[in-house]
Amino acid sequence: MKALAVVFETKEVVSVRTVEVPEPTDRDVVIELEYSWISIGTESSFFRGERISGEVPYTEGGPWPFPHVPGYQKVGRVISAGAEVTHVKAGDRVFASVSKVDGMYFDFGGHINPSVTDGSQVWKLSEDGPEPLAYSGTVLTQVGYNCGMRPPVTAGDIAVVIGDGLVGQWAAQTLAHRGAQVYLLGHREERLKLALAGGYAIPLNGHNSDPVQVLESENKQLAIVIDTVGSLETFRKLQPLMKHDSHLVSAGYLGEAGLIDIQKLREQEITLHTPSGWSAERMAATIAAIGEGWLTTEQLITHRFPATDAAEAWELITAPKSPCLGVILDWRQV
């Protein structure tokens, strides 16, 4: 069976071409895509050849993870569902994560149309409520949701989220929904303004001031720090402001630099959380939160491209000082 896919051919080389996908089994759902959402952080890391799997960095002399189909999230309509699939049927609008592909370094990928996807990685969407576009980044949205749900929250707790990207925005939304007072620490004024306009976080711009000094001057004691970008250096600067029995959530990719001094955490009884990946339960909860309207996604979309222009999308994503945040591939007219 043939499909059209975005392919990372080798390091920093992308194409859109026909690929082979397995014939669907009784467990599979075949989906005609409407939109797929590029996960800039994860996909860029693979694009640059920094990883060979989700948490395994590339090392010199190791396997080179190309070619492969990047991505892991999209929405569309079910074309057909196998005999063992009972929760969706032809015509349903769905969200799907990874799908099957042949002839690539990995036997799975995201940006593939039509997509042959195991039924366990397909969630039915309501025809009411938000537009399907709002759900097209649900795996990544779930990462932010997971970060924000990990630590206990008492109303009024002070939380700092490191990173003004998508995961940081959604972690901040989740903490704010749970009653925390959230500070979003980043370097991109246009992204920080989104959090302020959304009413879920107070911006801390690391370019304009020293965020630690700002928090110290306001006598803030931190109950929660969430690192979405993999910056232990920033965490260490914030650690003296953290209360006894506070919480660190580490979700950013650290490669081989993720060394934590447990003894220094123990001095303050800081609990370390290390969320990764997704689960069916968290995906369902994230979809529900988007439907309820408190976890918002569409205002974070900055760019849309026809799927056939994926190379152009990646040229913009990798440009110096790229303006991209949420980047969508539109498959409706392919």
Automatic annotation (TrEMBL):
Annotated SUPFAM superfamilies: GroES-like (SSF50129), NAD(P)-binding Rossmann-fold domains (SSF51735)
Record has Oxidoreductase as a keyword: yes
High-level lineage: Bacteria, Bacillati, Bacillota, Bacilli, Bacillales
Species whose genome carries this gene: Paenibacillus lignilyticus
Protein name per the record: Zinc-binding dehydrogenase
Coiled-coil residues: none
Alcohol dehydrogenase-like N-terminal domain sequence ranges: 64-98
Domain of life: Bacteria
Keywords recorded for this protein, A-Z: Oxidoreductase
